[in-house]
Amino acid sequence: MDSILKKSEISDLLNAIREGKVSLDPDENEQSSFLTCSPINLSQLARLDKEQFRIPNFDIIVDAFCRLYATSLTNQLQHTFSITRTALETVEFQKFMADKNQPGGIGILDMPPLKHGALIIIDPKLSFSMIEIMLGASTDLESPQLDRNLTTIELNILKTILGDACTSLDKAFSQLLELHTSLIKLENNARLVSIVEPEAEVIVATLLVKVGEYSGEINLVFPYATLEPLRDLLRELLNISTTTRGTWQDVLEEEVQDIPSIVTAQSGIMTLSINQVLNMEVGDILDLKYDPSAPLKVLVDEKVKFFAIPGTLNGKKAISLTGVIN
Question: The pTM is what?
């Protein structure tokens, strides 16, 4: 604990201040460290929160796409791919596309029943790398650096992996609704691409793709108008009751229906002692005490569930159900 100045010490301190022996100005080093700070844009922070709540939980869908698409590329190209989401932001469509002077491959996607569709943009570095891999190049080599647009033949080669991206998007959105995503067109010029008005708001997910020594970025561009109808579904995505109803309960219901069960058509039943069973011989007649005109009992896993009458069908014995026991 700091000591308390005595009355005489306080008087000496005040005299020293008056005489200028003790300075009230902070030391230069202390002042410079005190003034060192980083600017914070409060309006930007507020905007990020606003965006997050406007389309809640959309990052979950994007992350699911990353996992699915990485697995699909790994299986198809026989190289280990990893895809990681690095950013999720909202920008103006015209401004975003203006920054894509040399975008590589731009896939225009149709996503019925959603309107406006979406874009998947592969940067030039990754585009040429993927083409090299599809043509048999080793991923241990350095990624090719080519300062030109993709040719028509190269765009056609990329269509295969973009078709897999459509399938992965459908699976990622399947927990919300059933999509039928398809690749409408593949372009290499950003000026020829327009899916919404220039000033419209779009949500851009930036994905980092790595395979061996190759790496690059993929951008998923969704107009806000495309995702807005899913806002309520996305908000309920992590709700416990919704998750249970939409996943585990459905899975259990489907799996239970595939469990095998034993069905027995029973005409009669008798009780015998062990001695009687041991003394049975060929030709013995056992009385079932069963009325041939009475319906059979049909047991499911040893429990009576139906009534039926016996007969034949196509030369084989069969039963026809006549009643249900609830």
Answer: 0.57
